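Trying the structure run again after the queue cleared.
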Amino acid sequence: MHLCIKAEVFWEDQANLELFNNSTIAVDVRNYYITQLFTVNPSFSLFKLSGVLLCSTDIPSAVYMSLNEANTMAILDMRNEFCNGIEDPQAFAVLASNIKTITEEIFVTLGGAASGLSNTQITSVPPTVLISSLSTLGSVTTWGQDQANIIIQSITSSGYQINSAAVLESLGTLVVGVPSALLEKIPASELLHASRNPAFVSSMLQAPELLQETFVTKIISVDTRLTEVVQNVPDALATKIPPSQLVFSEGSPNISVINKKSWTKDQATMFLGTLVESDFDTEQLSTSVLQGFTCTSVQKVPKTKIKQLIRACRPRTGRSKVELTEPQLTCMYNLIEEDLDQNFIDYPSDMLLYFRIQDVQESNCRSYFSALGAADFSVASSLLNKGQQLFSEARTCLGINGLSLSRDHLDVLGNMVCTLNSSYIQNSDPSILENLKACTDLSENQVAAMETLLLSGETQYGTVATWNQQTLEDLGILPLYFTINIWSTFTTTIRMQFLKGFVAKLRKENTQKTKLENLFKQISPATPPAEVCTAGSITQVTVSDPAFPFGYDLTQFDLCLDIPALKENLFTICSKVDDNDFQKIILKKLNKAYPSGVSEQQVQLLGSVSRVATHSDISNWNITTIDTLAALMKTEDGTWETAQSKEIITKYLQTSGNSLGSTELNIIGSNVCSLDLSTLTTITANRYNIKSCQKVLALLRGLSPLAHDTLQGEVSWKQSNWMHGLLQLTPSDGVQVLYFELPPHG
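Done. Tokens:
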């Protein structure tokens, strides 16, 4: 008791409060202070905190919940003064929930915390207040897609017209909620003007892909000359220019303009061949341009310039990696294999995977393997067995005997360590853990060996007894692969605190869904069987936690998620739940919530949850707008089974006025192969980029003599620089005739 009193006095001491109210003190140290402060005194007054201490994300939600509306506004004012730019979704949700009536002044006080408002709260705000508050609302950067949709729907339903670029720009970050149909109605010349506003372009980059593509298509229509298209489309949105339009048939492209823009690999492949025929400094080419290197693109280029292009793809400090595939890398090697030098750092690291041992002088083997250590070994086909082959050669070069690798060996091998079996991981210098941090993936055996090494206490991370949240932070990406063997050594509190930042980072980096699913399965604490909710009802505050759904097993997730909460927080829940079984529960409850059919607005928010849908689930969805079709076809949410995609596309086509036009086909992508031939014959597109699909090829051969002549035998879809063919349809005697048109060679 005496110790508890002394501890409380220490943490609440005014001198200590002033001491830790210092922005130069590490954030994790300040957060630890806050955690201890509210642990010894859960009712400690927020008004006794000042400055940066009030910005801590470790202030318990319950503390904010105890505030009345007046005190909530006072705390918001204090946070606006000291915490500008610090995002705390849970704090925002609790503070916003304390506000009963929302006015224009309230929105100003809320600032960024407005994204903590529930959908019900937003819906209750009169459209006139929303309209008068657009300048404030449009500056909030943390809106969910559902919130932006509701605001835009509310103001447009009241008569507010989004019919000009000026109005569109005034929406700020809320532009993400604008339906593509409204954007289509705005004059292209006005959108071109808006595209010159950096703030507007920044907001558009957060919008659904369909909206971005519609925006770019409208800009292209202003002047379809390629030089003007490249000039007019904003640099960051250039990835939305159809690759088929990037063929420079006349004159030299403006390299300085092209070099500033972001490109996809398919796009860069289209124009690099023309680009390299110009006189320019290859060293200045951007990584997104260089990724378009192919044998075809350099077939007219002198060998000296080819070597310069390959050298330009080398690793460079302060510059992102040039992402190249195996065909590109082997092409590079084959083009210059008779003229290789021993300065290995002048080649793309991944290209070194395809060097033969006879290409490396024995005296230079160490420098070769040192340069190779920066490569991504997963690029090479598993059939080539490059990891084992190259490690065998490295053993000879470095004099490696047995299963133990020294620190020096590890420094040279670099990423090759990612290909080694568990025996090497367990028996090598503990610094091997630093090598493993660079791996794109780890096998179960590698993970088991890594955990054995960590649990031995013989690494730089010390013994289990000394581990804390900072230990997890220092381990980099490795916690993504941990099993319960490691997680059980940490308290539930530490796991949750760590997950808040770790999961947010993983999602930002688009980590694979399966990896996130496994992380939550391994890290979640075991809960005793129960027939009632014991983990806590799932509310908006709960799902605002970046670590959600940590703490819920399958049974508790089902018991603690009620239908009103799901309806209110569908977007947030769907964006944070990765486990397939959890996702099935979401769909089950969604069907109960909307027995007469799930609305378009809700279907658009499902994300990867949609991929576990059954025929019964999909039949209950409304899919009539192209925005809904686009939302369901996002490739980052996973692949569709043939029957699923067919049903979704068919439901869309059942709506009067909907057809398989160019936009639809580009959205559907390879899922077009799931459609029946009878449906494919209804295509109305003028031109369409299509990947190889046997069903479409059969249709082409059957309906067009030209297609039959062009597509003899095994079809190559990479003729010239083209990764895709152009499928065109033209009316002939009232019949849609399909033919395959090859573009001119560049």
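Residues 209 and 630 are 8 Å apart (CA to CA). Worth checking whether this holds up in the mutant runs.
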